[in-house]
Amino acid sequence: MTSPHPTAPHPAGGDGSAHAHRTGRNLPVAITTGVVLGAIVIATLMWWHWGFALFSAVALTAGVQEVCNAVERVGAHPARWPVLVGTPLLVLASYALFDAGQRERALGVIIGMLAFMVVAVLLARIPKGPDGFLRDAAASVFTIGYLPLLGSTCTLMLADDHGGRRVLCFLIAVIACDTGAFALGVLFGRHRMAPRVSPGKSWEGLVGGLVVALVAGAVSVRLMLDAPVWVGALMGVVVGAVGALGDLVESAIKRDAGIKDMSHVVPGHGGAMDRLDSIVLAAPAAWFVLYLLVV
């Protein structure tokens, strides 16, 4: 999840106030929204997994809409309706089967729905003729791969033993990395990590975020999943590293599209993708590490 310029360097001797001004965020609103969203996520993961599945379906669908809007700004025209309809169906149908103990059928639904969406977007583009077909088809398939494909691994994680705790450990590591990167970047950031994509991010912030994610992952996995500390530490580092790349991916999309935020659907934060950017890329990595190493 992207913090506002989470690893932005500031001039030596500064107190970070200029950085806070540059974010352009209403901090009280952003904090309130973050607390509300955090409470929803924790409550559903601990006591009502269907609620988290519904929340995920809504968030991913909003992300699809935002990515399609961004892609259209650079001249491509993805077939959005098959993905807008298919994404929540994939999440909810697969989780319903997982919840019923039908794991193989649930996996089949995930693969089948992804394949069906690809077929649907290709066929939906045919009536517009051949001009720009490759461009529009590529944009459509990119959207499918970026959101429903990567996001479906959260459903896989939720369906495993102690699934709510697994997802919570993963999200704790993502948030810890963001928070550590923000704090260390503001305090010590000097060397820009990817100035052409996201000028505010520094290598010092990234290292700080990874260290905090390592500790958070080690503690949370040990306490909530009763797994070895090294497994949690590995999960935290992997999630932090891949999540940072997810942040850069979304920054590149926004920079190419010439926008600051994907939308304004999340008060104080921007769009759904401004919260999902780290999560969607890091989710497959977290699922794989925990699937392999936590019995």
From TrEMBL:
Superkingdom: Bacteria
GO MF annotation terms: phosphatidate cytidylyltransferase activity
UniProt keyword list: Cell membrane, Lipid biosynthesis, Lipid metabolism, Membrane, Nucleotidyltransferase, Phospholipid biosynthesis, Phospholipid metabolism, Transferase, Transmembrane, Transmembrane helix
Bilayer-spanning residue ranges: 27-50, 79-98, 105-126, 138-159, 168-190, 202-221, 228-246, 276-294
Assigned EC number: 2.7.7.41
Keyword Lipid metabolism assigned: yes
EC primary class: transferase
Entry GO terms, CC: plasma membrane
UniProt catalytic activity: a 1,2-diacyl-sn-glycero-3-phosphate + CTP + H(+) = a CDP-1,2-diacyl-sn-glycerol + diphosphate
Region of interest (Disordered), ranges: 1-21
Pfam families, per the entry: CTP_transf_1
Subcellular localization: Cell membrane
Pathway: Phospholipid metabolism; CDP-diacylglycerol biosynthesis; CDP-diacylglycerol from sn-glycerol 3-phosphate: step 3/3; Lipid metabolism
The keyword Transferase is annotated on this UniProt entry: yes
Family assignment from sequence similarity: Belongs to the CDS family.
Protein name (record): Phosphatidate cytidylyltransferase
